[in-house]
Design brief:
Blueprint (H helix, E strand, L loop, with lengths): L2 H11 L4 H20 L2 H12 L2 H11 L13 H24 L4 H13 L2 H5 L3 H17 L7 H27 L5
Length: 184
Protein backbone atom coordinates (compact mmCIF):
# COMPACT_ATOMS: atom_id res chain seq x y z
CA UNK A 1 0.00 0.00 0.00
CA UNK A 2 1.35 3.44 -0.84
CA UNK A 3 1.24 6.46 1.48
CA UNK A 4 -1.43 8.29 -0.51
CA UNK A 5 -3.78 5.32 -0.28
CA UNK A 6 -3.06 4.89 3.44
CA UNK A 7 -3.80 8.59 4.06
CA UNK A 8 -7.01 8.30 2.06
CA UNK A 9 -8.03 5.40 4.30
CA UNK A 10 -7.44 7.59 7.37
CA UNK A 11 -9.52 10.43 5.92
CA UNK A 12 -12.33 8.02 5.02
CA UNK A 13 -12.35 6.26 8.41
CA UNK A 14 -12.24 9.49 10.42
CA UNK A 15 -14.23 11.80 8.09
CA UNK A 16 -11.12 13.93 7.46
CA UNK A 17 -11.05 14.85 11.13
CA UNK A 18 -14.55 16.35 11.12
CA UNK A 19 -15.99 14.49 14.11
CA UNK A 20 -12.90 14.73 16.31
CA UNK A 21 -12.55 18.45 15.71
CA UNK A 22 -16.27 19.00 16.37
CA UNK A 23 -16.17 17.09 19.66
CA UNK A 24 -13.00 18.93 20.69
CA UNK A 25 -14.46 22.32 19.76
CA UNK A 26 -17.56 21.67 21.86
CA UNK A 27 -15.49 20.61 24.87
CA UNK A 28 -13.22 23.68 24.58
CA UNK A 29 -16.32 25.90 24.27
CA UNK A 30 -17.86 24.30 27.37
CA UNK A 31 -14.62 24.85 29.27
CA UNK A 32 -14.45 28.46 28.08
CA UNK A 33 -18.05 29.05 29.14
CA UNK A 34 -17.41 27.57 32.59
CA UNK A 35 -14.28 29.69 33.03
CA UNK A 36 -16.06 32.82 31.85
CA UNK A 37 -19.33 32.51 33.73
CA UNK A 38 -18.57 30.25 36.70
CA UNK A 39 -14.96 29.75 37.79
CA UNK A 40 -11.52 29.15 36.36
CA UNK A 41 -11.28 25.96 38.39
CA UNK A 42 -14.44 24.53 36.84
CA UNK A 43 -13.25 25.51 33.35
CA UNK A 44 -9.97 23.71 33.92
CA UNK A 45 -11.74 20.63 35.28
CA UNK A 46 -14.15 20.50 32.34
CA UNK A 47 -11.35 20.61 29.76
CA UNK A 48 -9.13 18.06 31.51
CA UNK A 49 -11.87 15.58 32.45
CA UNK A 50 -13.99 15.90 29.31
CA UNK A 51 -10.81 15.77 27.23
CA UNK A 52 -10.37 12.14 28.17
CA UNK A 53 -13.70 11.42 26.49
CA UNK A 54 -12.84 13.03 23.14
CA UNK A 55 -11.86 9.73 21.53
CA UNK A 56 -14.94 7.72 22.65
CA UNK A 57 -17.27 10.61 21.76
CA UNK A 58 -15.59 10.91 18.38
CA UNK A 59 -16.01 7.16 17.84
CA UNK A 60 -19.70 7.47 18.70
CA UNK A 61 -20.13 10.35 16.24
CA UNK A 62 -18.29 8.47 13.49
CA UNK A 63 -20.34 5.28 14.03
CA UNK A 64 -23.51 7.39 13.91
CA UNK A 65 -22.32 8.80 10.58
CA UNK A 66 -21.75 5.27 9.25
CA UNK A 67 -17.95 5.60 9.31
CA UNK A 68 -15.76 2.80 10.66
CA UNK A 69 -13.90 5.10 13.06
CA UNK A 70 -10.96 2.69 13.00
CA UNK A 71 -8.43 1.47 10.51
CA UNK A 72 -8.26 -2.23 9.61
CA UNK A 73 -5.92 -4.41 11.62
CA UNK A 74 -2.44 -4.28 10.12
CA UNK A 75 -3.02 -0.94 8.39
CA UNK A 76 0.30 0.92 8.02
CA UNK A 77 -1.06 4.06 9.72
CA UNK A 78 -2.27 2.28 12.88
CA UNK A 79 1.04 2.67 14.71
CA UNK A 80 1.30 6.38 13.91
CA UNK A 81 -2.34 6.94 14.91
CA UNK A 82 -1.67 5.26 18.27
CA UNK A 83 1.47 7.34 18.88
CA UNK A 84 -0.36 10.55 17.97
CA UNK A 85 -3.18 9.67 20.37
CA UNK A 86 -0.77 9.66 23.32
CA UNK A 87 1.01 12.95 22.61
CA UNK A 88 -1.57 15.18 24.26
CA UNK A 89 -2.28 13.15 27.43
CA UNK A 90 1.45 12.73 28.01
CA UNK A 91 1.87 16.52 27.68
CA UNK A 92 -0.58 17.27 30.51
CA UNK A 93 2.11 17.28 33.24
CA UNK A 94 3.82 20.11 31.36
CA UNK A 95 0.50 21.98 31.12
CA UNK A 96 0.06 21.47 34.88
CA UNK A 97 3.58 22.76 35.60
CA UNK A 98 2.99 25.86 33.49
CA UNK A 99 -0.33 26.46 35.25
CA UNK A 100 1.24 26.08 38.70
CA UNK A 101 3.89 28.62 37.70
CA UNK A 102 1.36 31.08 36.27
CA UNK A 103 -2.37 30.35 36.53
CA UNK A 104 -3.14 32.41 33.40
CA UNK A 105 -0.97 30.06 31.32
CA UNK A 106 -3.39 27.12 31.57
CA UNK A 107 -5.15 27.65 28.24
CA UNK A 108 -2.07 28.87 26.34
CA UNK A 109 -0.04 25.89 27.60
CA UNK A 110 -2.84 23.51 26.64
CA UNK A 111 -3.15 25.16 23.22
CA UNK A 112 0.60 24.81 22.69
CA UNK A 113 0.42 21.10 23.55
CA UNK A 114 -2.63 20.67 21.32
CA UNK A 115 -0.95 22.44 18.41
CA UNK A 116 2.05 20.16 18.79
CA UNK A 117 -0.30 17.17 18.91
CA UNK A 118 -1.75 18.19 15.53
CA UNK A 119 1.59 18.38 13.69
CA UNK A 120 1.73 14.63 12.88
CA UNK A 121 -1.88 14.83 11.63
CA UNK A 122 -0.50 16.55 8.51
CA UNK A 123 1.12 13.27 7.47
CA UNK A 124 -1.42 10.94 9.07
CA UNK A 125 -4.36 12.45 7.16
CA UNK A 126 -2.38 13.82 4.23
CA UNK A 127 -4.01 17.19 4.90
CA UNK A 128 -1.96 20.38 4.95
CA UNK A 129 -4.88 22.05 6.76
CA UNK A 130 -3.74 20.44 10.01
CA UNK A 131 -0.48 22.39 9.62
CA UNK A 132 -2.44 25.64 9.53
CA UNK A 133 -4.37 24.56 12.64
CA UNK A 134 -1.17 23.57 14.46
CA UNK A 135 0.63 26.79 13.54
CA UNK A 136 -2.39 28.85 14.52
CA UNK A 137 -2.80 27.19 17.90
CA UNK A 138 0.90 27.45 18.71
CA UNK A 139 1.13 31.10 17.56
CA UNK A 140 -1.98 32.22 19.41
CA UNK A 141 -0.86 30.35 22.54
CA UNK A 142 2.50 32.11 22.52
CA UNK A 143 0.87 35.50 21.97
CA UNK A 144 -1.77 35.06 24.69
CA UNK A 145 0.82 33.82 27.20
CA UNK A 146 2.64 37.16 26.87
CA UNK A 147 -0.40 39.43 27.02
CA UNK A 148 -2.70 40.40 29.85
CA UNK A 149 -5.99 39.01 28.52
CA UNK A 150 -9.09 37.48 30.12
CA UNK A 151 -8.38 33.98 31.43
CA UNK A 152 -10.74 32.17 29.04
CA UNK A 153 -9.82 34.04 25.85
CA UNK A 154 -7.50 31.25 24.69
CA UNK A 155 -10.23 28.67 25.20
CA UNK A 156 -12.72 30.68 23.16
CA UNK A 157 -10.19 31.16 20.36
CA UNK A 158 -9.21 27.48 20.44
CA UNK A 159 -12.87 26.42 20.27
CA UNK A 160 -13.38 28.65 17.23
CA UNK A 161 -10.25 27.32 15.50
CA UNK A 162 -11.28 23.73 16.15
CA UNK A 163 -14.79 24.43 14.84
CA UNK A 164 -13.30 25.96 11.69
CA UNK A 165 -11.12 22.86 11.26
CA UNK A 166 -14.18 20.67 11.78
CA UNK A 167 -15.92 22.51 8.93
CA UNK A 168 -12.80 22.08 6.80
CA UNK A 169 -12.78 18.35 7.55
CA UNK A 170 -16.44 18.11 6.60
CA UNK A 171 -15.82 19.90 3.29
CA UNK A 172 -12.83 17.69 2.44
CA UNK A 173 -14.76 14.57 3.42
CA UNK A 174 -17.80 15.50 1.33
CA UNK A 175 -15.69 16.53 -1.67
CA UNK A 176 -13.87 13.18 -1.61
CA UNK A 177 -17.10 11.25 -1.21
CA UNK A 178 -18.59 13.00 -4.26
CA UNK A 179 -15.58 12.91 -6.52
CA UNK A 180 -13.64 9.85 -5.32
CA UNK A 181 -10.56 11.93 -6.11
CA UNK A 182 -7.83 12.38 -3.52
CA UNK A 183 -6.93 16.00 -2.67
CA UNK A 184 -3.39 17.03 -3.33
Amino acid sequence: MDITTAQSDVRRAFASGFAGQLVSALIWAASAACSTWHSHKLGIQVLVIAGFFIFPLTQLALKTMGRPGTLPKGHPMNALAMQVAFILPLSLPLVAAATLFRHSWFYPAFMLALGTHYLPFIFLYGMWQFGILAAGLISVAMLIAHLHVPFALGAWICAAMLMLMSCTGWIVSQREARSHVLPR
